[in-house]
């Protein structure tokens, strides 16, 4: 927080800046994975409750009455200027909430916005004037920002010009459709405005349709092998380990936007794990079970292809599991079979400050663990609600206006459909992730034991390709960079534009995309970014070339999937991805 002890009215920033961005290119504003895992278990109510931080905030202000008096006095003065029409307060140019001309041209609406901005500035000023420990200050900032975003005039159906214009243009249809949409959304979790219609896409018809077959199935996962689309294929195959949160087809979205499709067309042999959506009876599936599953899938891929080695690509929470499995194999003599390790938006080093650090402590973490132990799993719908509230301006209030005030259906968007297609997380995995993150144990050699092995990521000496998103609000890119530095081999680090998922779903052809890439990770993240060259376009071709250089020679492609030991059990996308 900047020192705002001077004139707080003349520079309306900070809280208002949240609405200016669809994603924040700042590690301090991102929220690592452990916070959503805790909030999903304990419920979203704590977002509005400051707890002890609120008491400390009021106590700090009580000890500085002169500052409070000054702030309130300036607010009163500004309100006077607003009433007589001389106030210069105005929304920032990029604030989409007030982009309708009526907010600036209608004298009443203009004053309402100015009052809101003045209140926003007062809250910012009082927070700057209250000396507190960083944890309490960040907690109060978090709570106040959510309250202020909720209170924005643009969310009010009675005064929103967007709502009224839609009302007259539709002959009042939005007044019927909006409440109907609201009732539908609050009837079940996640209780946030729908970002996509539930029937907007169909898995196996619109999404996840790269041709392939399930060649292996266990209680925990299905293994999909994709059909070659080239006359020859690279000798060394690729196994993809998707996140354990949501479903695998984020990497096989619509044609033209599917990473699987792209890699297959580059001549790569591609296999995909499809995790089962766990139920209460799977409550004991923890990191050991998932790491063992990755190792098992790895072995099946090797036995089908006969390559002798396998590349492993893993994303987000799947990356954590793949790293632990790889380190276990390295420390027990099996790393020679791993051709390379490819990590996408994976945060191993979870050291953090900012909002996330202010919300997490050991007591809260253990309370969250106890809650998931009672149910046997963490409900993915609740987790989706928490993820939405991490970016409320874009993922809650934007759709509030569209769905309820305007009575519209949200646009079709494959990423948001995938985002809404949630899965559960077993209680044991929830526990293991939280305890590993709480004390940043994965970043310490021997801090976590997997399958009886104290894990040291430096033992992973194969080449690695690591991708982060510059605007990732879940896995900050600086943490991904520090995570890459923990590996023991040569690392190619790529910083892609966009956020957590859009950085991955980045097919060639998007002229707005670019990425930075360098293999020199000897410097601080800031210095790396300042020095790393920028390339225009998608990072996918760079990755395909890097992977191809490590995939051996070409061999004739086979039209037959599996082999005599592992015969196809059904067509892709399989059965596990279809389960609710």
Automatic annotation (TrEMBL):
Domain Poly-beta-hydroxybutyrate polymerase N-terminal positions: 94-263
Alphabetized Gene3D superfamilies for the sequence: alpha/beta hydrolase
UniProt KW Transferase keyword: yes
Keywords tagged on the record: Acyltransferase, Transferase
One GO BP annotation of this record: poly-hydroxybutyrate biosynthetic process
Pfam family, one: PhaC_N
The UniProt record lists the keyword Transferase: yes
Superkingdom of the organism of origin: Bacteria
Disordered as annotated region, ranges: 1-29
GO molecular function annotation: acyltransferase activity
Name this polypeptide is given: Polyhydroxyalkanoate synthase
Source species: Nocardia neocaledoniensis
